[in-house]
């Protein structure tokens, strides 16, 4: 029987939006998207979510339980929204690492945080979520906000996050998910595939990157599937919280 994940040259394939591409090419294609959108990423987040992303991130911070002296890893930290708040919460005795695989996003995040006076307890690391370059049992909290859907091997990334967490440490995954009602889902489809590329074209002159982002959301595992992936990786007490009718979900798991 043929493996549907293989192409004609027997190289494994994966999705890039709705396209099927060789696994070896996905990271470069995703990198092109984020190199393109990095400069106006914050503006587009506000436009496309109507500012709601700030509320979703605030809830993530509240549920993280980050406190003074903690070590926190913010994966796919991008322009540093979560890192900025975590830096304040952990204080001078704590540590926050903003990690992102994309050099352009990391540079924008570093410059933005330095401009806001965030320094001292924050470091910046270019890192692949699937192969995190940190010691075992190192962090109290790991977060990834709107980044997991762009990872090629999500199971590998979740296991890597488990490895770097201390026993009792918490993983929080904030990501677009599946709307809870058919009516909302229909509206969201129209919004995603018509308004998002149009806004991308008007504001960044890049409709294709925002078409990919819309497609990548649809290809991401739904709430129950992602919960099962976290349990399979070894997390315990895994829960998720739907926000804005399930358009976004926050998953939380504990390392035993």
From TrEMBL:
Reaction(s) the record says it catalyses: a 2-demethylmenaquinol + S-adenosyl-L-methionine = a menaquinol + S-adenosyl-L-homocysteine + H(+); a 2-methoxy-6-(all-trans-polyprenyl)benzene-1,4-diol + S-adenosyl-L-methionine = a 5-methoxy-2-methyl-3-(all-trans-polyprenyl)benzene-1,4-diol + S-adenosyl-L-homocysteine + H(+)
Any one Gene Ontology molecular-function term assigned to this protein's record: 2-methoxy-6-polyprenyl-1,4-benzoquinol methyltransferase activity
Keyword S-adenosyl-L-methionine: yes
Enzyme Commission designation: 2.1.1.163, 2.1.1.201
Full protein name: Ubiquinone/menaquinone biosynthesis C-methyltransferase UbiE
Compositionally biased residues, Polar residues: 10-22
S-adenosyl-L-methionine is among the record's keywords: yes
Function: Methyltransferase required for the conversion of demethylmenaquinol (DMKH2) to menaquinol (MKH2) and the conversion of 2-polyprenyl-6-methoxy-1,4-benzoquinol (DDMQH2) to 2-polyprenyl-3-methyl-6-methoxy-1,4-benzoquinol (DMQH2).
